[in-house]
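Just scan this pair:

***
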Amino acid sequence: MAMAWGRGELFPKANEAEIQRTKFLLGKYKEMTMLMQDFEKFEEDLKQVAIDGEVVRRIDQEDLHADKTANATILIEKQRWVYQRYQFYTHQIRRAFSLIQDIEANKAIDYRYMQGYSYKETLLFFRHGLAIALFVVRYLRALKA
């Protein structure tokens, strides 16, 4: 139940599209963090590959003429833009994750999505405690892991 503030809600409930988008981003969280770390570590190398490599010869297959310098700049800017979007998404996911007060839910989300374990691996990890394992099964099924 959301708290009411005047006519609106202080904490509005998520609609179905927002829930689906969150599930999608949770599923991509580990991959996004790995790509961000790679970009941070090898940004200069990626720029050099973009300049020297064949990938930029033609960004768009409809191009009749290829300008490698311009295409390399476009590719580098696209990589930076994707990195910035990933930063935003992962920050929001970590922020929401830090607000989960239920310890079992927090652990389940941590193992399944934050650390990137599979559904089966997450269940096996929680197998030692029956009550927690049952909770994790129900919770991950609700998320359609």
About this structure: The CA atoms of residues 2 and 11 lie 5 Å apart. The helical segments are 16-52, 68-98, 103-114, 119-125, 130-142. The mean pLDDT is 78.
